[in-house]
Amino acid sequence: MSGPIPGPAEFVELQKRLRRMSEDPMPGKTRTILVIPSFSVDRDLLINNPEFRYWEHRMLYLLSKLSDPATRMCYVSTCEVTREALLYYVDLLPDVFRRDLDRLQFITCPGSASEPLAERLLRRPDILLELRRAIDLTDEAYIECFASTNAEKELALILQVPMYGSDPTVTSYGLKSESRRLFRQLEIPVPEGVEGVYGLDQLAEALVELKAKEPRLQQAVVKLDDSLGGVGNALFSYSGAPDRPALREWVKQELLTRLELAMSIIDRNRFFDRIARSGCVVESFVDGARSPSVQCEIKPSGEVIVASTHEQQMTGLGGQHFSGCFLPATDPQWIQNTARLVGDALQSKGVIGWYGVDFVVESGPEPHAYALEINLRNLGTVHHLMTLRSLTGGRYVPERGIFLTKSGRTRFYYGSDAIRLPNAVGVKGSDLLAYATSRGWMYRAPEQTGVVLHMIDAMTSYGRIGVTCIGYSAAASYSSYSDVLRDLQELG
């Protein structure tokens, strides 16, 4: 696995192979999917919350691809997937059987808590050799990843296989500053704000500029350009702020004490350091009654597909932290049309794979909707959606704004990966599954309703778990979630 790494032109040629695979599947041709769910964004999350490594297990929804007998899979993770967890997922899937596991290989690659999986693999020629052997078992292969960074790209080049994702040279459109710029180019409404802000001096100036444009503004949101899930957000209060020209000096004096981090995962020194290094956005705080989002895919062929819509549940300081989601969103047509417009623009710039667009709808008698940001990665809602798809054979129907099963029945869900049960640390997956089954709310195939568990192995190490609660209505799905929370409190 040694030798010079191929250049950029060779990556372009690799990606052309991905398009040929998707457009011209040859009968009898075999394929290997290399699943490398590296959490390669926002390293601070890994350092301060090592349980986020189990997000790598959310991509187990890809096991449904083993329903194709011509498909093999090699799944790489920093955390072992136990046999109990694996069999739980396989037994749920209607078209995948235990015998299909002969075409599945797991590889565990442990290492430093601060180092993403993809970067670890680049230092492990032994594992790269295993991946090469897996690739050689079939006629073609490609990489499925959580996010496209330089590390994933380098892996693709070393292994000489394409990846279902974008060249990192275009993923800047997933940064908050570039998101806002693209929205404005497309004439999509955004909150008043300033992007491309670096360092404390520019941050202070941006806060002054924002208040000058909106004299009645009471709060501003500061968002790290390269963060996710609201982790890199902070609020600045203008309460008691003087009028100009005294405003500038007041902001400079008050900045460090009034800026309040939305979450404690990043400390203040690290937050300001990241503003200096990678920038931030400063924008008006919108008193949002709703936070809908749209999830889309750009296929290798260039086709833009609206895959789902969600009402995001936002919690914490100023409602800046994503904690769960309902499918589908309320009144989805405008946000769908807007997300599709964004997708057409992204596709023209070479983006491939999943992307999401987040919105906020302000409260009031005449609410306005604003686009907030674009996310270019395997989104935190995708595993919920793909689980529902796999279990029901259905799809989201954009024209109607609903999800229909294969038999034409409507389904809803509430999904969350934010369940924390400190008293349940040490509980084995087998005990968790036995207990959950005894409570009666686990997924039932005949009705196509009930609860699917995610990240089962994270319960043992960290007392954390995720759920997709499927129901006949949004209320029924959330009621199931409430049952889960109540019953799991008894564990431990």
List the defining traits of the structure above.
492 residues; alpha+beta; 11-stranded antiparallel β-sheet; 5-stranded parallel β-sheet; disordered N terminus
Overview of this protein structure:
By secondary structure, this protein is an alpha+beta fold. It contains 15 helices and 21 strands. It has helices spanning 8-23, 43-48, 83-92, 117-122, 125-136, 150-159, 176-185, 199-213, 247-258, 268-278, 333-348, 382-392, 429-439, 456-462, 474-488, and strands at 31-36, 71-77, 104-108, 140-145, 163-164, 193-197, 219-224, 233-237, 259-261, 280-284, 288-290, 292-298, 304-315, 321-327, 353-362, 369-375, 395-397, 402-404, 410-420, 450-454, 464-471. The strands form three sheets. Strands 11, 12, 13, 14, 15, 16, 17, 18, 19, 20 and 21 form an eleven-stranded antiparallel sheet that branches. α6 (150-159) links the parallel β4 (140-145) and β5 (163-164). α8 (199-213) crosses α9 (247-258). The chain is globular and about 75 Å long. The model is unreliable at 1-6 (pLDDT under 50).
Give the helices and strands, then pairings.
Layout (H helix, E strand, L loop, with lengths): L7 H16 L7 E6 L6 H6 L22 E7 L5 H10 L11 E5 L8 H6 L2 H12 L3 E6 L4 H10 L3 E2 L11 H10 L7 E5 L1 H15 L5 E6 L8 E5 L9 H12 E3 L6 H11 L1 E5 L3 E3 L1 E7 L5 E12 L5 E7 L5 H16 L4 E10 L6 E7 L6 H11 L2 E3 L4 E3 L5 E11 L8 H11 L10 E5 L1 H7 L1 E8 L2 H15 L4
Parallel strand pairs: 1-2, 1-4, 2-3, 4-5
Antiparallel strand pairs: 6-10, 7-8, 7-10, 8-9, 11-15, 12-13, 12-15, 13-14, 14-19, 15-16, 17-18, 18-19, 19-21, 20-21
Helix pairs in contact: 8-9
